[in-house]
Write a structure and sequence with these properties.
Elements: E1 5-6, E2 9-10, H1 44-52, E3 59-60, H2 62-69, E4 77-84, H3 88-91, H4 96-100, E5 105-110, H5 121-134, E6 141-144, H6 153-164, E7 168-173, H7 179-190, E8 210-213, E9 219-222, E10 225-226, H8 238-244, E11 253-257, E12 261-265, E13 269-275, E14 279-285, E15 291-295, H9 296-306, H10 316-321, E16 325-332, E17 338-342, E18 346-350, E19 356-363, E20 368-372
Parallel strand pairs: 3-10, 4-5, 4-7, 5-6, 7-9
Antiparallel strand pairs: 1-2, 8-9, 11-14, 12-13, 12-15, 13-19, 14-18, 16-19, 17-18, 17-20
């Protein structure tokens, strides 16, 4: 990353204090070169907050993000953790509680619009509460919402008003979970942006955070989005991102399978039913990926000969650039209600009660696991 130097001193944003750079718009401190002649010089994120009352997303890697989180525990703050319901395990910040200390955590679960309309929302809430507890996260409230449909945001703002008191508000989350949408809504509802952004510098703040002034002298602290490499959204090409990340309600696709059958999800991943009685599996996968059924003993040849063509996306070129597939094998016990979850791609619900031996093939590094059924 190219930083802008001014003699021996790096030029810093007069809004948030981050060192400025002109190369990577998605990283903290980005400023277009044509804006360098302006006085004072502020980064693009501060510019958007000041002029448009909008925050734009920037990202940092895990080590940088954990360094930022470690400072929250020393503050008196309300922490809002935004996660993606479609990719819950992939977007939940593991170990968040030990970083934020005794500060209250409000869990905002976004993208509820992706689940089918017949969903039992009480069951979803209970499922989320249990999963968060197993991750050691103590939440003061769980709010289900949809940034796209603007559902649940009024309740989320009510929860913030109820719990904030005289605290600053830190908003944390992974990339692509809708954090900026929520920040922008907070700005519209709480912040008096007639103040110059330069007055929002908070003593002791880390440079990668942006502090947005509230009317009562406190701040919304917009933290960068953490990049988790185990999610499909971080490894696919930009043109394939829309196929992997659904923007419409999921249409469950049920398949009656015999052992020895395979399902391909485009050319992104595959599911093998290795052993067990004839049973049903329901796929909750974005509509941009076509599901192709074949015999297990033909699956390797099918992929080798048709990835990027019959099995697409990705294209042949993009498939060659992706990590090699890794095989994950699971034995599903009798009587269990389980999902086989693939981070950022979706999940396969095991509907039978007779047990099954299954396997998932996915690019190396992608998180694949068995969990209690979400739906």
């Amino acid at each position: 990353m190219t930083e802008i130097s001014d003699g021996l001193q790096a030029v810093k944003c007069s809004g948030c204090g981050i060192r400025l750079q002109t190369v990577q718009p998605e990283l903290p401190g980005y400023v277009p070169e044509k804006a360098l002649d302006k006085e004072p010089v502020i980064c693009q994120r501060c510019f958007r907050i000041k002029n448009y009352n909008e925050s734009s997303s920037v990202t940092v890697d895990q080590d940088e993000f954990l360094a930022l989180l470690s400072r929250i525990g020393d503050k008196d703050a309300l922490v809002i953790h935004i996660v993606d319901l479609f990719d819950f395990e992939g977007s939940l910040i593991s170990g968040l509680q030990r970083f934020v200390g005794s500060n209250p955590v409000l869990l905002a679960v976004n993208k509820t619009d992706l689940l089918p309309k017949v969903t039992n929302w009480n069951k979803i809430r209970n499922w989320i509460q249990k999963q968060a507890k197993e991750q050691g996260l103590r939440t003061t409230d769980i709010v289900l919402c949809s940034a796209k449909k603007n559902h649940g945001f009024d309740r989320l703002l009510e929860a913030v008003a109820e719990q904030r008191g005289n605290r600053d508000v830190y908003v944390v989350g992974a990339t692509n979970v809708g954090k900026s949408t929520f920040i922008n809504r907070l700005i519209r509802d709480y912040s008096d942006m007639e103040q110059e952004l330069t007055t929002s510098r908070y003593p002791g703040t880390t440079l990668d955070m942006v502090n947005i002034p509230l009317d009562d002298g406190h701040f919304i602290i917009d933290t960068p989005g953490i990049v988790y490499p185990w999610r499909f959204s971080e490894i696919v090409s930009r043109k394939d991102l829309a196929a992997v990340m659904p923007d419409k309600p999921l249409k469950p696709a049920a398949y009656q399978l015999d052992s020895g059958q395979t399902l391909f999800f485009g050319g992104m991943a595959r599911f093998d039913f290795i052993e067990g009685a004839h049973q049903s599996f329901t796929c909750y996968i974005g509509g941009g990926l076509k599901i192709h059924r074949t015999k297990l003993d033909k699956a390797n040849d099918l992929y080798a000969n048709h990835v990027g063509e019959l099995l697409s996306p990705p294209s042949k070129e993009d498939a060659d650039a992706m990590p090699e597939w890794t095989r994950h094998e699971f034995r599903i016990p009798k009587g269990s209600e389980s999902d086989i979850y693939i981070s950022g791609l979706g999940w396969i619900k095991v509907n039978g009660n007779s047990g099954a031996l299954v396997a998932v093939h996915a690019p190396r590094g992608i998180r694949v696991l068995v969990r209690p059924s979400l739906i």
